[in-house]
Each structure stands twice: as structure tokens, then as C-alpha cells.
Amino acid sequence: ISSLFRVSEKQATAAQLAAGIAHEIRNPITAIKGFLQLLTGENVGNKIYFEIMHSEIDRIEAILKELMVLAKPSKQKYERINLQVLLEQVVTLMTSQALLNTIQIEKQYDFTNGWILGDSDRLKQVFINYIKNAIEAMPNGGVLRIYGSSLADGQVRISVIDQGSGIPSEILEQIGKPFFTTKENGTGLGMLVSQQIIKEHRGDIYIESDSKGTSIQVKLPLLSQE
Ligand code: ADP
Ligand code: MG
């Protein structure tokens, strides 16, 4: 059964978000503190302890980096963006990660007009997040498809389609909740951050998923042609 799911806002309250942040950051800090306490006497130079602390600090850094995207004010310098160029830049960035996972990226663009108004760094982040998730959903490799086309209704559609095992419906409902993750080292912020950015650009997100894979579609308003 495939389910098409229009991602709407499931805005977390400030209290829920604060509780999530506190929890997510407290865990690695507790770990770091514990290992610091162990670094005495003959353990003082224990390399493994340092490595664990380092990776925990990296985790805090990753969480804060994603949260900062959410914290950014939505009034920004919007510029004319050619989506095909932007997608190409994102694909180039993600190519090595895809190859390392024996994933082939197939692209297909059908833009009669691919210009939109937006913040290119933030939009790139969205597609990086989706491609990352797609790669992570295909641990045994596969094909990752990226389609872009301009539609007749004044919108543009970008699809990121993977051949992973899909998102069960009970999990689909959780997606976009802050810190919701099914991954051991996930932050559970990628989908939320992406939703926020697409919303700022007055776009919509649709998720379609079954046991053969997942398709994430983003629709954005085209810049009208003068
Ligand atoms: P993270 O990747 O850190 O777990 P995200 O917010 O990016 O956080 O994603 C949240 C969850 O949504 C993932 O843990 C995963 O369960 C699910 N998910 C997102 N994209 C996909 C996909 N393409 N295929 C399967 N599951 C996905
Ligand atoms: Mg992710």
C-alpha cells in the first residue's frame, strides 16, 4: 500500500521543543562528564575516552547546527535561483557519499522555466537532507532518482526518489516532529528543518512511500516570467 502524504505543519510547542533540546544535549554532555571523571590516575591518557568525548561533542555540534537553521529569521535576502543549477550543485556535493554506498544517482530535468525566488543556501540544505535520508535508506545500494520539472500551474516540482524499504505509516505520522529518528545516530531534525525552509518559500511537501521506496516531492512557486 502506498500512501501519499501531504506534509502539513505539526508545529511543536516551545515547551516540547525545549524539552527535546534539553534531552538531546544532556545525553552527550552526561557522557562527556562521565568520561572526564574517568580520566584520572593511570587513565589520564586513555585515547578511547578522548575519542568518545570527541564524538559526543560532534553530536552536540550537529544538533546545534540544525537548530540554528530553525532559529534563523525568515526574512532573508531572497534572490533569483535557477533550480537546475542548484540541484546540480547539491548532487555534486553528495556524489561521494552516494558512491561510497554504491548508489547511482539518476537525474532528469524538464524545466521550461526553473527560476524561483529563494535563499539558495537554505534550499540546498533541504535537498541535502532528503538525499542524505535517501542514501541512508539504501544501505545495500540502489538507484536514487532526482527529477525536476516546471508545472503548468506556475509551480516547480522536485522529486527525490529512493529504493529503500520505505516509511511505514505509523512512522510517516511522526516525521517532522522534533528529534524523531529511527536511526542510532540520527538527530531527527532534518525533516523538520526542511519543512520549515520549504514553508518559508511558500512551498509544499508530499511524501509517498511503500515497501519499494520513498518519494519526496517538493513544490515551489515559480518566478513569473516577465
Ligand atoms: P534523521 O535522518 O536524523 O533520523 P530526519 O528528520 O532526517 O532525521 O528523518 C526522520 C526519520 O524519517 C528518519 O529517522 C527515518 O525513519 C525517516 N525517513 C526520512 N526519510 C526517509 C527515507 N527516504 N526512507 C526511509 N525513511 C525515511
Ligand atoms: Mg536525516
TrEMBL record:
Limits of the Histidine kinase domain: 20-224
Gene Ontology terms for molecular function: ATP binding
Keyword Nucleotide-binding attached: yes
TM annotation in the entry: none
EC class name: transferase
The EC number(s) this enzyme carries: 2.7.13.3
Coiled-coil regions, chain positions: none
Catalytic reaction annotation: ATP + protein L-histidine = ADP + protein N-phospho-L-histidine
Alphabetized UniProt keyword annotations: ATP-binding, Kinase, Nucleotide-binding, Phosphoprotein, Transferase, Two-component regulatory system
Protein name stated in the entry: histidine kinase
The species this protein was found in: Ectobacillus funiculus
Native organism taxonomy: Bacteria, Bacillati, Bacillota, Bacilli, Bacillales
